Description:
CATH topology of the largest domain: Immunoglobulin-like
Helix content: 10-25%
CATH class of the largest domain: Mainly Beta
Structural class: alpha+beta
Strand content: 35-45%
CATH architecture of the largest domain: Sandwich
Number of helices: 8
Shape: elongated
Radius of gyration: 28 Å
Amino acid sequence: MMKMRGRPSFFIVAALMCTITSRVELHGQTKSDIPQRVQLEADYAVFQHRVQSPAIGSTDSMYVELFFAVPQSALSFQSDEGSRKFIGSGLMALTIKRATGELVVSKAWRIESHASDTTAISPTSSVLDELRLNLEPGSYRANLYYRSVEGAGRLDSISFPIVVTTPAKDALAWSSIELCSSIRQILPGERGNFMRGTLSLVPNPGGVYSKEVPVVYYYAELYNVFDHVPGTIFFIRSSVEDFRNNPVASIRVKEIRRKKTLDAGAEVGTVNILSLPTGVYYLRLDVLDSLKNVLATARKKFFVFNPSIIASGEHGLVSSGEVLASEFATMSETQLDEEFSEAKYIASRDDEQAFGKLQGAMPKRAFLAQFWSKHNPNPARSPGEFRSDYLNRVEYANAYFRYLSTPGWKTDRGRVLLQYGKPQDIERHPSSDEMKPYEIWIYEAAEEGERVQFIFGDINGYGDYRLLHSTARGEIKDEQWQRQLR
């Protein structure tokens, strides 16, 4: 469990922000001097708080619970002679600003975690905690920072929006849906974090589920039932949708009958994801009246990494998918974004939409592991080999096709190389009195056994070879392409 120590200090926050956001100069530094990125995960939920007063009756306000996770391996551990354990610690900072730029929250604190053996700390083990914040309705930007205590160490930051709505008074309303890795009844006399009422809720800030964490636990609250639900009974329906908002057939829709006995209540449930292939999904909660009319809806995005399940109609992850996934384990979110950008020539529109909805490195790692398996054109070859071959072509394009500040993979020749592979033959024609230089790339049996050509010309004479004509379907065609080179 995480412990938080220390009084919030603006100066500590500012110093930590400066440390993390400053540009690291590599010149003159050894590899051990360079800070290493860790993977922070954060999420939040907004709940309504009702206070009863004899003088003015009930008043409603909103509060925010911010959940965050820090990899336990990112902490700086020191042995503790008294307990014969190791105490890990790190520095955290949080700022929250309104959309106008006004600073409303500034906190800094120290986190701690205990371990009996630092060599046994799992790379997937995280230290969790939460903060409860009172924020007025409005739009905010939160920035969460982490830095290890010693040396250049390990650091990371994450930025995300927070939207706090006005307390609902004249309508049936859901709170946010909180995703958890476990929910249970608390024991008599039990104390600790993550407790709400009689429940212990362990949050899952990353929203990622897998065969190691196969059950989505969720918690949500429903408000204003008495005035806005007709009759004496209603139903709570839970379902799962894919990123296109289509119901997922393999997850059974659940409907629970409720009696209208409380004006506000909590809904707790589970979804087993072992049947779902890797991808982005949404948990959906609906309130239905006795005639099954939908009265209110809440949705929450989560991500599944499940390499053992093959998506219908697509190449799923093969048995080596888990090995492939490990290649992404040390990649930062920036590196993952860059790799997907380089792979855009083989990505579908659905791929781009799904990846664009992801936040944080963990779901992007899982997505890319599935991506390379799904687009592997040769089942006899492992997804890792396919990815390696593609990225080797990216390196080749960057080395030989770069033009000024444009990376080689973004040029026309780079695009064709990545999309179609290496040509079987290249005819290079240098500059002459009649023609500027050009190249003809030849692919044998590229389309249903037919031979196709790509003709690139250096129109400006400075090494920027543009695609002028191709016989491939869907590519630019200009039978008079020679005119552009004269």
